[in-house]
Amino acid sequence: MTGRLFVIGLGPGDLALLTGEAQAALDQCTDLFGYLPYIERLPERPGARRHASDNREELDRARAALALAAEGASVGVVSGGDPGVFAMASAVFEAIETGPAAWRALEVTVIPGISAMLAAAARVGAPLGHDFAVVSLSDNLKPWPLVLARLGAAFEHLRAILPGETPVVFATAVTRPDERVEIVTLAEAEATRADMRTMVLIGTAETRRIPRGEGLRDWLYAPRSSGVGRASA
Amino acid sequence: MTGRLFVIGLGPGDLALLTGEAQAALDQCTDLFGYLPYIERLPERPGARRHASDNREELDRARAALALAAEGASVGVVSGGDPGVFAMASAVFEAIETGPAAWRALEVTVIPGISAMLAAAARVGAPLGHDFAVVSLSDNLKPWPLVLARLGAAFEHLRAILPGETPVVFATAVTRPDERVEIVTLAEAEATRADMRTMVLIGTAETRRIPRGEGLRDWLYAPRSSGVGRASA
Questions:
Q1: Residue A99: CA atoms inside 13 Å, Cβ hemisphere, count?
Q2: Tell me, what's the ipTM?
């Protein structure tokens, strides 16, 4: 008897951003594994056991989920955002590669989710409308002060090559009750505005900013016709 | 009286990848604008007029949608994948910036969707598990032969700096009935395998490939601990 493993993207926070496919997978799992705050977003369901763990135990969590699936269970590993972007899916496949050979034959389905990057971009317009690069700010495998120092160094570097008024977005806890979205300029951007729940979107010299007046947040967008447009998230 | 404009991401194809938020927006629109194949994915609904147009008329479509919203309608502009990634949201904001001042006060909501990039990555494992860059292969504003020539040049350049066995994924029409996903090596990658519905994911020297044996597609993943990992999509 062979079980199944679903690696399920829950999206950035608000469950309205869950897909139908993710919900269908959640509904058929007998066991759910995940970082406690992600597991807690989901309503409890009779017949579905919940295995919550600390965020730093990704590989152990993946191995426990795979072992249970190999016994025949329908197992879900839940992840915030998209499970493939700096999240649980890599840990699951690392566990498969380094685990028992039988795990390679398991049916594993990665179910994409709305990444924080896409949700944050949507809040301010369309800053990812042209080519962009995505860099992890996770402190999962390195200390947060090092992440902040690198972000600060990136701002310094970019100030030397981009106009001071280039927009920079700090989008924290997007779609969650304590969401906070600020648009500043590159000249005034400070790394310490970010915490672990923050997406930092850095525009380019071609990013457009549309002023909207008192009480309305400006819109940002990258023109599709950008010649050399590039945004980092 | 003020209307609303929703820019709605439909995801890569299969409507199971639609979010609840996107469905709720679709349900309340009196008018839907979009490229004909996207509009046709949606079931018809009494009370919702459908305005389908050609894919090359993005700005005109955005202006027509905004004009109707400014008259008080609840208007949806639908987009494949995520509307912010090389899609309709940029056109909407360009139309706002260059249109009547009153459009700046309109309530515009961008509703993210599962991008083809995320769906394609999920099919093969977790190739975007570490830092990556995203480059548009759209022929919307340039001829397709030029796009292919650039992709071929990129392969040539990467062959000079990456191992020949670096994996390259051609993922076409993901989640649609004619989905086709192939993993090849950088040494054998040919740009002509791609068409306009293809995501090309190029691994790095650190991308791992897990052989699974006869009849099962290999898994790819980027280790989260990658020092300099980088994948392009």
A1: 21
A2: 0.94
